[in-house]
C-alpha cells in the first residue's frame, strides 16, 4: 500500500492516485520517476481501480524493462533526450568548434611482405580475441523478410553469412592454437547481439544447424532492448496509438553492444582468461574475414587501443568517413563521421563543395566499414567509467520550420563506432585501410535502390555482395599464380557487375595468403565460365586446367590433389528478375541463379591420398 507521503506526491495526478493500491513498492518508485520527469500524461486516460488492472500492471512491467536496460535508467534517458532535442531545435551543430581534416593511418596492400607479416601476427593473436557480431538490425534498406545473417553469402555453395563467420572463427582458432606452444586449447568466444526483431530466428538458425560446428557454450546471444519513443521537444514518452498501456519503442542502434557487453560480465571473464582483443563486426560483409588477420596483426604491432577498419570511400557513399576532428581548444580525435553528417560538416568548415572525390577518384576521408578491434584491458577500464553508455544523437523529422512538432515519434540512437568519443587524448586510436575488393562488400540495398546508385559507386546489394566474393577469390588466386581468366560485364537486376569465375573455398582451406600459396602450385588456369568450390582442408591444386564446374569435399584426413584438364558443361548463370515472386526471395534479390548443367563432384570420406582428374 502507498504511504501517506506517496499519496501526497501523487495527488496531482488523480488517475494514477486512484490506482496506487494496485502497485507494488517498486512500481510506485517507477511511477515517481515518471512524474518527476514530466511524464504524467501517460496516466491521463487511466480508468479507476478495478478496470484494466492487468493492462496497468503490464504497463509497469514495460516501464521496469525500459528503466533497467538503459544506463542510468529512464530518468537519464529523458534528461538526455531533452538536451539533445533542445540542441536539435536550435540547429546546433554536433561538431561545433571542431574542424575536420584527413587523418593518417596504416595502409595495407594485399600480398605485400608487410601484409603477409601482419596476417601471420594476426593468426598468433587470434586465440586472444573474442568476436562480437552486431545483428539486431532489421535491414530496412534491404527489405528482406528473414534475418540477414541467414542469407547465402554466395549461392554456389549456399553457405549463409552466419555459417561463414563461424567457420572463419573456428579456422582462426585452430590455426592460432596450433602456433601457440603452451599446448592449451582455447575456444574463441563468439557473441551475437540480437534484438526482438532477430533474436529467436538467430537462435533457431544456430540450433537447427548444430551451431555450425561451434560449441554452443562458445556462443552467447545478447539481446538489445528497444528504447522509448518521444512525442515532443519536452521528451514526453509516446504511447502506442492502439494501446494506452504501452509505450511505443524503436531500436536504439548498434551502440548498445557496449553496455550489453559491460553488464553481461563477459569482459571480466575474458580478462581473467587472458584474452586481449575484442573484434566487432556487422551482419553482411562476406569479405570481412579476408581483412581480419592482417588488421589484428596491425593492432598488436601498433598497440592500438582502437583500430577501425577502413576502405577507400567514394563521395556520398553510404559509409561513414574517418575524420580527424580538431577542436578550437586544441584537443583532437580520430572518429567516424556518419555518412549523413559528413557533407554538412565539411560545408560548414571550409570545404564549400562538401563530400566530393579528390584527384584519386575517392573521397579523401577513408570509409569506415565498422569493423573495430579494441584492446580488452583499456576497453574494460573505459566501460567501468561510462557503464557502456555511448554518445547518443536524435534525428527528429519536424512537421514545419517552427520545429515544435514531429511528423512521427522519434527516439535517441547510438552507434558502436562512437565509442572513442569519450576516450582520453592518451588513448592510441588508429585505423587500417585495405583494398575494397578484399575487405568490404555489404548487402544493404534492395535491387531497386541499388540500380539507382550513382555510376561508379558500389551497389551494396545482394548481387554485388556475391560477385565481390568471386572477384576477391579470383584475384587472390591470381596473386598466388593461377591464371584466372578476366571477368565479363553483365547487368543483373539493373546493376552492371563484373562476373568472375565462381570460385569459393571453406575458411579452413585458406585463411591467410601464405597458406593459400602453399595449396597452389605449377601451371593452373581457370576459365571465366568455371565454378570451383573447395570444401575440404587438405586440397592441393597443381597443374590444373579447369573449364567447367568442379566441387570437392573431403575430410581432413584425406589429402586431395586437383590437376589435369577438367572440362565439362559446367554451371550457367540465368537472369532472374527481382520482381518474379515465383523465385525464392534470397535468389531473386541477386538477379541470377545457377543452372547446374554438369559438374565433376568429388566427395572423399576416407583417409588417404587422392588425385582428382577428369
Ligand atoms: O539497433 C541496431 C541497429 C543496427 N544493428 C546492426 O548494426 C549493423 C549496421 O547496421 P546498418 O546496416 O543499418 O548500418 P548503416 O549501413 O546505416 O551504417 C553502418 O555501416 C556502414 C558504416 O560506414 C557506418 O559508419 C555504420 O554506422 C548491422 O549488422 C545491424 O544488424 C544492430 O545490431 N542494432
Ligand atoms: Mg542503418
From TrEMBL:
GO terms for molecular function: UDP-N-acetylglucosamine diphosphorylase activity; UTP-monosaccharide-1-phosphate uridylyltransferase activity. InterPro entries: UDP-sugar_pyrophosphorylase, UDPGP_fam. GO terms for biological process: UDP-N-acetylglucosamine biosynthetic process. Its cofactor is Mn(2+); Mg(2+). Pfam families: UDPGP. Coiled coil: none annotated. It catalyses: a monosaccharide 1-phosphate + UTP + H(+) = a UDP-monosaccharide + diphosphate. Keywords: Nucleotidyltransferase, Transferase. Transmembrane segments: none annotated. Its EC number is 2.7.7.64. Belongs to the USP family. This is UTP-monosaccharide-1-phosphate uridylyltransferase. It comes from Arabidopsis suecica (Swedish thale-cress).
Amino acid at each position: 500500500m502507498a504511504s501517506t507521503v506517496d499519496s501526497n506526491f501523487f495527488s496531482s495526478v488523480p488517475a494514477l492516485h486512484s490506482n496506487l493500491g494496485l502497485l507494488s513498492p517498486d512500481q510506485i518508485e517507477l511511477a515517481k520517476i515518471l512524474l518527476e520527469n514530466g511524464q504524467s500524461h501517460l496516466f491521463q486516460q487511466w480508468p479507476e481501480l478495478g478496470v484494466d488492472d492487468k493492462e496497468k500492471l503490464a504497463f509497469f512491467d514495460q516501464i521496469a524493462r525500459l528503466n533497467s536496460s538503459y544506463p542510468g535508467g529512464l530518468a537519464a534517458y529523458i534528461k538526455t533526450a531533452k538536451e539533445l532535442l533542445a540542441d536539435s531545435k536550435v540547429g546546433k551543430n554536433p561538431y561545433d568548434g571542431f574542424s575536420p581534416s584527413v587523418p593518417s593511418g596504416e595502409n595495407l596492400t594485399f600480398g605485400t611482405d608487410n601484409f603477409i607479416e601482419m596476417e601471420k601476427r594476426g593468426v598468433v593473436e587470434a586465440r586472444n580475441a573474442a568476436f562480437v557480431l552486431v545483428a539486431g538490425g532489421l535491414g530496412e534498406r534491404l527489405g528482406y523478410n528473414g534475418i540477414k545473417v541467414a542469407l547465402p553469402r554466395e549461392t554456389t555453395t549456399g553457405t549463409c553469412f552466419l555459417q561463414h563467420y563461424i567457420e572463419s572463427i573456428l579456422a582462426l582458432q585452430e590455426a592460432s592454437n596450433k602456433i601457440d606452444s603452451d599446448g592449451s586449447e582455447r575456444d574463441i568466444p563468439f557473441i551475437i547481439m540480437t534484438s526482438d526483431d532477430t533474436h529467436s530466428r538467430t537462435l533457431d538458425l544456430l540450433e537447427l544447424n548444430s551451431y555450425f560446428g561451434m560449441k554452443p557454450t562458445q556462443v552467447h546471444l545478447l539481446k538489445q532492448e528497444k528504447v522509448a519513443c518521444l512525442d515532443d521537444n519536452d521528451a514526453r514518452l509516446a504511447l502506442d496509438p492502439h494501446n494506452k498501456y504501452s509505450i511505443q519503442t524503436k531500436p536504439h542502434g548498434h551502440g548498445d553492444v557496449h553496455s550489453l557487453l559491460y553488464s553481461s560480465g563477459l569482459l571480466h571473464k575474458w580478462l581473467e582468461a587472458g584474452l586481449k582483443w575484442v573484434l566487432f563486426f556487422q551482419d553482411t560483409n562476406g569479405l570481412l574475414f579476408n581483412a581480419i588477420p592482417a588488421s589484428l596483426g596491425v593492432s598488436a604491432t601498433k598497440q592500438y587501443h582502437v583500430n577501425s577498419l577502413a576502405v577507400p570511400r567514394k563521395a556520398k557513399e553510404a559509409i561513414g568517413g574517418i575524420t580527424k576532428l580538431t577542436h578550437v581548444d586544441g584537443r583532437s580525435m580520430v572518429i567516424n563521421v556518419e555518412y549523413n553528417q559528413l557533407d554538412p560538416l565539411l560545408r560548414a568548415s571550409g570545404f564549400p563543395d562538401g563530400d566530393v572525390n579528390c584527384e584519386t577518384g575517392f573521397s579523401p576521408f577513408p570509409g569506415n566499414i565498422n569493423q573495430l578491434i579494441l584492446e580488452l584491458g583499456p576497453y574494460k577500464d573505459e566501460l567501468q567509467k561510462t557503464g557502456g553508455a555511448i554518445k547518443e544523437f536524435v534525428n527528429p523529422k519536424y512537421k514545419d520550420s517552427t520545429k515544435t512538432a514531429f511528423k512521427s515519434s522519434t527516439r535517441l540512437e547510438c552507434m558502436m563506432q562512437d565509442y572513442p568519443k569519450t576516450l582520453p587524448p592518451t588513448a592510441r586510436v588508429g585505423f587500417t585501410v585495405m583494398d575494397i575488393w578484399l575487405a568490404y562488400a555489404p548487402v544493404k540495398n534492395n535491387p531497386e535502390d541499388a540500380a539507382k546508385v550513382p555510376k561508379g559507386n558500389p551497389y551494396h546489394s545482394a548481387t554485388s555482395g556475391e560477385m565481390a566474393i568471386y572477384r576477391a577469390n579470383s584475384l587472390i588466386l591470381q596473386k598466388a599464380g593461377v591464371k584466372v581468366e578476366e571477368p565479363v560485364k553483365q547487368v543483373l537486376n539493373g546493376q552492371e557487375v563484373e562476373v568472375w569465375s565462381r570460385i569459393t573455398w571453406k575458411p579452413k582451406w585458406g585463411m591467410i595468403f601464405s597458406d593459400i600459396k602453399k595449396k597452389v602450385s605449377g601451371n593452373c588456369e581457370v576459365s571465366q565460365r568455371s565454378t570451383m568450390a573447395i570444401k575440404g582442408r587438405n586440397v592441393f591444386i597443381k597443374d590444373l586446367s579447369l573449364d567447367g564446374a568442379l566441387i570437392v569435399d573431403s575430410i581432413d584426413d584425406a589429402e586431395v590433389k586437383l590437376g589435369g584438364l577438367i572440362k565439362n558443361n559446367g554451371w550457367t548463370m540465368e537472369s532472374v528478375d527481382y520482381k518474379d515472386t515465383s523465385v525464392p526471395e534470397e535468389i531473386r534479390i541477386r538477379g541470377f541463379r545457377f543452372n547446374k548443367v554438369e559438374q565433376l563432384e568429388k566427395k572423399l570420406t576416407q583417409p588417404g591420398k587422392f588425385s582428382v582428374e577428369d
